[in-house]
Amino acid sequence: MGEFLKVVNYKDAIKLIKDNLPLKKTKTVTLLDSLNHVLAQDVVSTEDIPAFNRSTVDGYAVKAEDTYGGSESSPQFLDFKGSLQIDQESVIKINSNECLWIPTGGMLPVGADAVVMVEYTEKLGDDTVLIFKPVSPSENVIQKGEDVNKKQTIFTSGINIKPQDIGVLASVGITSLQVYEKYKIGIISTGDEIVPIEQKPELGQIRDINSYTIASALKKIGNTLRLYPIAKDDYNELKLSIEKALSENDLLIMSGGSSVGTMDLTLDVLLSFEEAQMLFHGVAVKPGKPTMVVKIGDKIVIGLPGHPVSALMMLYILCLPILGVSSINTIEAVIDINLPSQAGRDDFIPVKLIQTESGTTATPLIGKSGLMTLLSNADGYIHIEAEQQGVIKGELVKVYKFN
Amino acid sequence: MGEFLKVVNYKDAIKLIKDNLPLKKTKTVTLLDSLNHVLAQDVVSTEDIPAFNRSTVDGYAVKAEDTYGGSESSPQFLDFKGSLQIDQESVIKINSNECLWIPTGGMLPVGADAVVMVEYTEKLGDDTVLIFKPVSPSENVIQKGEDVNKKQTIFTSGINIKPQDIGVLASVGITSLQVYEKYKIGIISTGDEIVPIEQKPELGQIRDINSYTIASALKKIGNTLRLYPIAKDDYNELKLSIEKALSENDLLIMSGGSSVGTMDLTLDVLLSFEEAQMLFHGVAVKPGKPTMVVKIGDKIVIGLPGHPVSALMMLYILCLPILGVSSINTIEAVIDINLPSQAGRDDFIPVKLIQTESGTTATPLIGKSGLMTLLSNADGYIHIEAEQQGVIKGELVKVYKFN
Known about the structure:
Chain A has seven helices and 28 strands. Chain A has 403 residues and is α/β, with parallel strands linked by helices. Chain A folds into four domains: 10-25 and 182-322, MoaB/Mog-like domain (Molybdenum Cofactor Biosythetic Enzyme, Chain A); 26-47 and 156-180, Molybdopterin biosynthesis moea protein, domain 2 (Alpha-Beta Complex); 54-142, Molybdopterin biosynthesis moea protein, domain 3 (Molybdopterin biosynthesis moeA protein, domain 3, Beta Complex); 330-401, Beta-clip (Beta Barrel).
């Protein structure tokens, strides 16, 4: 009873799932909707940005050489040739010893090669501007194409699109683009003892915590979810439920009640599907060894432990990485007790972070591992890798933060 | 022209806005929808969790004292009294030298005070179980109320709800709760030179980058946004646009074209509203000095610089903190050049992070500050505070990461 049929280590578990994930479909979205998606095309600019030599300050467009030697005590005198409107191309050409008022963002007139900031100038009557500080050529000017070059590949497929990327895309006039669709993920809790959260459990029963923690952790990273009714420990009921969820999703995340019996039954049902292939049954990690993954056709079913704390930890350490949440928020901290660890097993231990004068301290929360309140109280977790024999008090550790 | 009327330092700017923010409304949401919201009530449990003494393993429920002295070579012999189903209350009482099979999550029978893991047992025939390892009282058992106590305040108003909190709430049967509504935020870009992104700019014009970067940075933290049409530098048009946006939102974020003229006009229009009160006009930061905040009635208008890079940086450093995004992802890194900084001014400098063998290095991206591609290429920014005179090559700095 409850033997693990194919135990793998943590790294292999991640690799096995990644290698067998369904192909991602692509879709076209508007620029704003592309946020937090992975780009599925290369983007080439068809324009120079800026499209013209552009002033970065309010001031006077000049020939730089005409300002050389200007100082507070001995300014240069330039002829004022008028003011440029922000959205206009200048029709006035700047000749030696001439200047033109130009607003920030304005287009540099022909003949000018720099801009003197208004702070270092003074208008003298209608026709003359005093220059108190010299500028060098190109000073306070962004050259045509300096931000983005025409025909430049500005982004390559595979990047995760962030606000400033959207800024670059907006600047070159990209209004829609191809991104990868996120997986549709179905969630099923199983087990005779599990009852809906709105129901008062009788003695021996427990509420369906897992559907909610799994759904919210996935929702947080922007996935599309579908929650299915709790499935009892009944072969036919379970099979129908899995069939339906598989037909409506790319991935299925199940959590297996807390008993080995439920897990065994779930595995039986999963392997009864045509094309079912067990990728692994058991991962050498703590907590969460009773985790299994079965490939059915081109879809993947991940069976997490039933225990709510283990299930959520496995979601963080196994499911989020395979869903491409690579840049989990990490921080370095000093561990404040010795933590032994079994060689050959990857340990993940929730910690509380405390700011001290000398830095950040991580206190492992190693009470009864069954307590969800303990995980709720944690700021993150540390990862003791399989090769390590543990960590020693005072050692610097990497903390993966929950927020 | 373009004088700053009331320049404040960075800390005061944040405080001034925070002190004048509209009161937050509360709303009732379902448990799953409460994710990433701020709790607006205290939550008190009406139940003990677990509601019964619960086994954390598959094994045999025993009186701990009956297992003392058991070892591989000399096991204890206990009488097997049957198996407990996962969702059932045991009707069998455990007496001395008796044991009962119990699954993980099962309810401890009366008389038992510990559970021996199945790995350390062997069933001998129908009636006897060998115990190869002793357990202490309470071992492998979560006591009734150990996770959550009846009448315990499990969460207090003000916390940001994360997946494991949702787990705790699910465990005690909370299906809906009071959270603070996020602010509705209107976004208006202004300036004669700004054209919609789908339009090809003529010489002197530039696309509306700011609406998209501001909207996506706010969307990323879960805010409700409304984008308004670009407003030209026209007093009446601007006034109508602001009136409409104020009536439909709690906050209004404007970006002011790139010229001082546009900013001056925007300020005039804002101050023309009854009950308008200028909180500040100018912040001693780089980049982004030309930032202003006006309170109109109980609403707040934030005028960001028109320059896209400055506008987005100000959004990150000024707007996100006041919207309660406190736990920005930070990492420590070694700065790889000297960076001087003007005392009395807070400097924010984009950096690229590079992983080296000795740790993480931060390389400031200090080319022309006007380049959005530069910000798109940055991994985060560092903050040189007003009291600091700069940072020195090799110093450890805190990097605020964009992801």
